[in-house]
Specification:
Layout lengths: L4 E4 L4 H10 L3 E4 L14 H13 L3 E6 L8 H14 L3 E4 L3 H8 L6 E3 L8 H8 L3 E5 L6 H10 L3 E8 L2 E5 L3 H8 L6 H6 L4 E4 L4 E8 L2 E5 L3 E3 L5 H5 L4 E4 L6 H21 L1 H18 L6 E2 L10
Parallel strand pairs: 1-2, 1-13, 2-3, 3-4, 4-5, 5-6, 6-7, 7-13, 12-14
Antiparallel strand pairs: 7-12, 8-11, 9-10, 10-11
Helix pairs in contact: 1-2, 1-10, 2-3, 3-4, 10-11
Length: 310
Amino acid sequence: MKKPELLVTPQSVEHIKALLEAGADAFVIGEQQFGLRLAGEFSVAEVEEATKLIHAAGKKVYVAVNALFHNEKLDALADYLKEMQRIGVDRLIYGDPAVLIIRREQGVTIPLHWNPETTATNWFTANYWGKRGATRAVLARELSLDEVLEIKENAEVEIEVQVHGMTCMFQSKRPLLGHYFLYQDKVMAIENRQENRNMFLHDDERNNKYPIYEDVNGTHIFSPNDMCIIDELGELFEGGIDALKIEGVLQTADYVVTVTEAYRQAIDAYFDESEEAYEEIKDTLLAKIEDIQPAIRPLDTGFIFKETVY
C-alpha cells in the first residue's frame, strides 16, 4: 500500500515552514478572489515564494481556483492561470467548468483536481471529469465511510477525503452580513468582517454556534463541530485513499501544526511499522488533539459513520 498524502491549508509562508517540519506533504494556497474558503491569502508573489520553498522540500503546491466565476472575472482568471503556469505549481483545484475552458485556451498544462464541494458524491461523475483532465476528485464531506470506499474502488482518479477540521454548511454569493448590519443601521467594512474570526450564528434550539464570515465570494457558514477521525483511519488506509486533508480554516496556526504532527505520526506508524503500531498510539494522538481543541469547537466524526437513508 502507498502512503496517503497529508494535505494541509497554511495561513502564510511562515506557516508553511512550520508545517513542512510537522510532516505535511502538500499545501492548498491561493487568493480569495479565485479560491473558496482559504485558510490564508497568498498573492501571486507569495505563491511563487511558497512554491520555491515547498518544492525545495520535495513537496507539492495546489492552488485553489474553485470559486464560481461570473463573466467579468474570466479575464483575470486567464491571467492568473498563466501566472500559475509560469510559477510551476503542481495542481489547480477547480469546481467551475470555466476553468477547464480557460486552461485549454491559455495553453496551461497544470493538472487538475476536481472539487465541486458538496456534489462529488459518486464515482461515475468523478470518472467523467477524470476523462476531461482531472487527476483527482475531492469528495463531499457528507459521505459515509462505506460510500467513500465504494467510490475509491470504482474511481479512475485519485480520491481525496477530509479527515479533520470544520466543513462549510452553506454559502451565498450575497453579502448577508453586510445586509444585516445595514438593516440594523450599523456600518462595518467588509475588510473588518473578513478578518473577524469570532462571529457566530447562535441556534438556541440545538445549542449550537455556527462560525460565519463574509468575503468577496459571499457569506460562508460552517459546521458547529470539528471533524476528527485520527483514531478511525485504518479503513481509509486499507481502502487506498490517496489524500487526507486537514482543513485549517478559522483555526490558529499553532493548532494546525500540532494536528498535522499528530496525523503524520498516525500515517507513519501504520505504513512504516504496522497496523498494530497505529492501534497502539491512536488514542494518545486523539487525546493530544483534544487537549488543544477550543471549547467552543467540539470534536466529532462528521458524516463518516452516519447511516445513509435513501
